[in-house]
User: Fold these one by one.
Assistant:
Number 1:
Amino acid sequence: MRPSGRAPDEMRAITIEPHFTRHAEGSVLISFGDTRVLVTASVEERLPPWLKGKGEGWVTAEYGMLPRATHTRGQREAAKGKQSGRTQEIQRLIGRSLRAVTDLKKLGERQITLDCDVIQADGGTRTAAISGAFVALRIAVNKLMAQGLIKEDPITAQVAAVSCGIHQGTPVLDLDYVEDSAADADANFVLLSNGNIAEAQATAEGATYDEEGLLRLLRLARIGCNQIFEAQVKAIG
Amino acid sequence: MRPSGRAPDEMRAITIEPHFTRHAEGSVLISFGDTRVLVTASVEERLPPWLKGKGEGWVTAEYGMLPRATHTRGQREAAKGKQSGRTQEIQRLIGRSLRAVTDLKKLGERQITLDCDVIQADGGTRTAAISGAFVALRIAVNKLMAQGLIKEDPITAQVAAVSCGIHQGTPVLDLDYVEDSAADADANFVLLSNGNIAEAQATAEGATYDEEGLLRLLRLARIGCNQIFEAQVKAIG
Amino acid sequence: MRPSGRAPDEMRAITIEPHFTRHAEGSVLISFGDTRVLVTASVEERLPPWLKGKGEGWVTAEYGMLPRATHTRGQREAAKGKQSGRTQEIQRLIGRSLRAVTDLKKLGERQITLDCDVIQADGGTRTAAISGAFVALRIAVNKLMAQGLIKEDPITAQVAAVSCGIHQGTPVLDLDYVEDSAADADANFVLLSNGNIAEAQATAEGATYDEEGLLRLLRLARIGCNQIFEAQVKAIG
Amino acid sequence: MRPSGRAPDEMRAITIEPHFTRHAEGSVLISFGDTRVLVTASVEERLPPWLKGKGEGWVTAEYGMLPRATHTRGQREAAKGKQSGRTQEIQRLIGRSLRAVTDLKKLGERQITLDCDVIQADGGTRTAAISGAFVALRIAVNKLMAQGLIKEDPITAQVAAVSCGIHQGTPVLDLDYVEDSAADADANFVLLSNGNIAEAQATAEGATYDEEGLLRLLRLARIGCNQIFEAQVKAIG
Amino acid sequence: MRPSGRAPDEMRAITIEPHFTRHAEGSVLISFGDTRVLVTASVEERLPPWLKGKGEGWVTAEYGMLPRATHTRGQREAAKGKQSGRTQEIQRLIGRSLRAVTDLKKLGERQITLDCDVIQADGGTRTAAISGAFVALRIAVNKLMAQGLIKEDPITAQVAAVSCGIHQGTPVLDLDYVEDSAADADANFVLLSNGNIAEAQATAEGATYDEEGLLRLLRLARIGCNQIFEAQVKAIG
Amino acid sequence: MRPSGRAPDEMRAITIEPHFTRHAEGSVLISFGDTRVLVTASVEERLPPWLKGKGEGWVTAEYGMLPRATHTRGQREAAKGKQSGRTQEIQRLIGRSLRAVTDLKKLGERQITLDCDVIQADGGTRTAAISGAFVALRIAVNKLMAQGLIKEDPITAQVAAVSCGIHQGTPVLDLDYVEDSAADADANFVLLSNGNIAEAQATAEGATYDEEGLLRLLRLARIGCNQIFEAQVKAIG
């Protein structure tokens, strides 16, 4: 029995509230249960120096956690003067995941930045961020297409992410904080709506796992991502 | 006529949503029109080194703005590796304002940190932050009193803040972003529910002002703060 | 009775020694009693990036305190690797104050930086810095006009600053360190020789204050600034 | 055909030179072809603050690349003043991998730091680092056991890592720099000598992949790691 | 002929004004011609962590240059967020030089910090700093002895420093900025009043030099330091 | 008797292994006994901003020490976020030494960076770095000349460096770590193959020294450098 009473292959409630803020070209507040992440997509008609003049664009991401998103207050990264290794690892993952479904040539010479800020954390913040960032990106790209700034749709598929893990010997879907702290293995899968995998990361925490375990986690992830794909479609409208 | 069509002494709509997040001892989402600030109050049973053993507590604040809270995306301070002078100035002001209504001896040897994060900006973020922080602090202190950790109420009055300015020759209350950008003078007042002043800051931007101008701004601020005091009382319940 | 034996509306001795150093386009050593600040004005024929090509100039300030300007040695900010919030707040105030009396269009596309370094501190360092910076700026601008680089005088008035506070219930002028540490309220006023106000900042420390208190502090500040204006005129010669 | 002429399941030459430096408790120079990494294991009788008094030890890693380990000179991270996101991600991975085969209770209240410095880079630096770090750790732990400081062997298995990828449609083992730059997918597997998986990370670069692709990469990784396990045993002697 | 008209072995005017500031335990304003350095000695009854409990004290130095001490304004190190290599090299040299004449055991478990801040620069700032720092240290130590905190005089000799160089083929004493910029070789000598050498540093700039050149520079340095020793004695009184 | 059993004027074994890594335009692994430094020379067809358009090139150096090059592990400078004063002092010395034998006009508008990374430390790391950097520079310049990118040889002499010191009253050559820790004076000489001196630095540690001592150290340095010049010639081939 999971601490939350959920079945092993049961996601938490997924909600995606589009247009949560008004200045960004795209924005959503996404929740996986008590995990809530605000994502904005900002379009800028400029590029990082190393991409200039190549006839293509860039999609990147930044990630942050409000100091009291967590059970006990964490130090503000802006006050510490640097982003932790964890933060940098997560924002690199989010950026790669979104680029996996974006044709950068069709995007044209512009940059879209996905800012993912965790308002409240209860496990799975990076997977909620990726899943919400897709919606913010989709909204921003739709706006660019409506304005005629982009001719062909650069987005090639939906992308979503979910965590899975082995908790007391049982593979389970969408770990919350309590499960995450006690899991033997902890995985994040970034999947595409066409069935492909963009990223698989499975880490032994308490105990290592075998090939069969890896496959069972991947199959749980597919169940979860299919539900997220539906919620994304509904939010985009 | 103000760009927003408001009368000179008319505040924007004030909303205060208490308990916006669940981990913090106190939290609110406060809005002054399109300006929205999330404030959490975190109680910690520890003190900054220079206060240890003096038999009193500390109230402090941190302030941040999400990168796309504004019309165009700003660089994330955690990524830049330092907080701007503006950020530091604002968080020092918030901290002083809250301490002006807190008896630190009665608070006991603990620290309360008010994290004020701007979700969306349309002028007056620091005054909304102070006004919301009071509610978050009040909720957190009520919890400590209910738990018997504090015997006597350390909070001595309500505190609220509002901006005023001279816009096209007319003193106006609660500047939004459009007015703020064009104001000749820009003031922030931090007022107490007992009628006193905790902080007055009036800065000439385009044109300097005289004593009469200063007094008219102060009187507008009283009108605004009285409305905020009411909204605070309602939110605390 | 004030600790120094001064009357409530009595300034400390003001001395302004112009041309204290030889490389800067303008320089002064200003003293308010034992507070001594060295100010240099540096003219550079370049602008911050965001001002380029707008046909106007810029006046800015930096502030520092020598590690042993104070009673006990403070850590050197260059060694700590960052400027404190207090330092940044003060240098922003000095810059705004000088810009309040400078017509940036008439200054032309050049930048003047006022470096204010506190040699010895006994309260009121920021107000001495502003008052001295005006003289350094005036000397530097005079040089630019004598060289024919500026046609019309860009300086529109004199500016000076002084602190006031409520000490043991009495409003007093020009706080020294001993009074400052014990004051109930602490204010800084930046006033113009034409009678106007460039900046008013009044902060409750031990006890909040009322409108009447604010006005009494402002009136003391006028007395002080008038004396500083005279000393400035004499120093410029 | 691979650019290097290797068969798809062919590793580059593996060499492990133990005792490459003399001060460290354990040290090796490991090469996977032209990739050369110097790893030292440093034993310290102290712990990070958050582990003190828990009766267990810690194994951690740091990673660096000499500025001219690569084809063109990269900026020195010490001169830039911060470690890149890539560096931090890699050193977190190395630390987790080594902890997956270490019983921290049996290690006792001490810390072992694996410093992995890339002397020359030609793809696969992080996997060479993990594979070499195991040998340095084993040598250091053997020394502690010989000195009687540790009673029971805390190391529970061998650990090794190798990269795999999909290159021009073919899954290949142990990517060199040329292949890595052009790969559609890029994976790193950290495997144990008991057959288990400590970490699996598979990232789509040019094209996403499917479950079958993930499994084929994992099987190649087993082939490679088995050869590394043999080389480790020979190096430890 | 030297640009300044001085003879090859002629120092610039040396002035040492003791007690220039009032808070520090020792302070001087020293000038070598137009080079002016303010030095304060701060006594603290605490030690750096690595010296605690060894029954001895520490003498250290920090060095800074006001932004407009020089012909053109330099960036403030506190604003840049780090001290330059040059600054660190100089402050290490000053500290070593003072420790060469201090018996740290007799000093007792306290630290004296010499802050050397250049008010105006015209070549030779580090040598003026060392020469002035000796006086500030002597004054501070005299105070400690007068208070009975130190029993035996820990200062074993006077120390002074001067620069020399080879300018247009001629060895010259006490380079000013114009000479320093054009010198073929540039040397700094730190000498003791007992005739010994604490530090010799001779650097080829435009042209390398030979043993005879090195000795001629050293002999010039003795001439200069003897004059500084006299000025130190007079300043201490 | 020296701790190592060497005669006072006896160098440790000097080995210089050229072409130690393959990407750099020049590279060596140099050893002075147990001190081992890897030096690479990187040629870049770009210049620091302040040198652009002057028709000359630049030679510069960076220095680092692997965390466990030493007896006990030191903190990684990249992790600390800044280079120590010692590191900066050393890399400035290395750069100056190489420039003393390079005609920057003949080098043309390009930069050569010498990266000196200490693999193992046993005293004299900076002198080994300079001596090895000359070989790496020579190899890189030979390559540029062979490619016809440089017409005339910009290198005017060989340069080498060695440390000397006064150990238990005896001047000795090429201090190892044990001697260095106990030396009364510690000197580094950078000498040219034409007999001239590029840099002399002699520092009193435990006891100051006299002119005769300085000369005896210089003469020992000549003996050492002559042996290094021979080893350099052999390594270049």
Number 2:
Amino acid sequence: MEAASFTPGSVRPGGRTAKVRTAVLEATRAALVEAGFHGLNLDRVAAHAGVGKTTVYRRWGSAAGLVADLLRDMAEQSVPAADTGSLEGDLLANARLVRETLTDPRMGPVFQAVIAAAACDEECASALNGFYATRIREWAPCVERAAGRGEVPAGTDAAEVIRSVSAPLYYRFAVSREALAEADAVRAAAVAVSAARSGLFTRN
Amino acid sequence: MEAASFTPGSVRPGGRTAKVRTAVLEATRAALVEAGFHGLNLDRVAAHAGVGKTTVYRRWGSAAGLVADLLRDMAEQSVPAADTGSLEGDLLANARLVRETLTDPRMGPVFQAVIAAAACDEECASALNGFYATRIREWAPCVERAAGRGEVPAGTDAAEVIRSVSAPLYYRFAVSREALAEADAVRAAAVAVSAARSGLFTRN
């Protein structure tokens, strides 16, 4: 895309492409929630999106290609990391965000479906791994700032701290299939902060 | 089954039933790993198990019924909880067991498949929840003994401590799709012990 294409008021090349992508990913999300990865059919996604089949086949190629792009879009759209001034505040914001997302009536089923897709298909697994890698990169600076403030030891593995906030929430959501309460988010953040302060996440 | 049926050397009533169950669950496990929950077909399971279709339909009823019974069998067969004399030793044994199971070439794919099945089907979700409830009941006494020894505060939620050991390992395995190393098991146990000692798992 050329710089000139962003002149205000002009029709951006890419504007149509972006609209097609939005429609296709919305249809993908709906189909995944409705019928799961095995029910994800490119012809039906194209029809629901109001987009030509050829476009969908050419641009996304396969059901796994659709899921991978949906996850890329979810990573791009997701909420920026908090900066509350303390590790405790930041990780609590993170835990609450994870809990709100997973219990959201629209997003919860999407996460169920992409986790299931990742269990069935290696390309989806790799895309899901990429989604969480992006989220970890987004939130890692909270831990780095805390190390700078002396809240946690130097050499604390920021990624591991962020993972440890998510883990108990995802465990209940996707593995043991238990309810996910506000208290679980509060506990997840508290345990991560306490373990980080104690140096249990420092790199070996 | 009557007590007399267990006379050594006698043919146990139930012996045939137990053999049929073993064969059917083994075929279920293989089919799940091979083709996932959506590829689980009662006729093919019956054929692979060398058991009549009618038996499989009458006794298990559906693909979800097969998965639920497989999970019951996995819970029954699983390794008893450790009793090493310290919470640290017991939770480390637990973390290592979880890691070994999930990275086992035979069992890892079974866990992937049942987690995916649970994401697609409510009966499977309820069976998976039951599997982890059984495992938590099996391991909770480690925490209760630790409370008795004064290692952790009275009122510590034993189930929550056991969940917290599993959570980071399952998060990598089923959600973020990252490698699962021995160091992850060691860290999971250390974080759970530290948080339990600090009273972060006491009931409100």
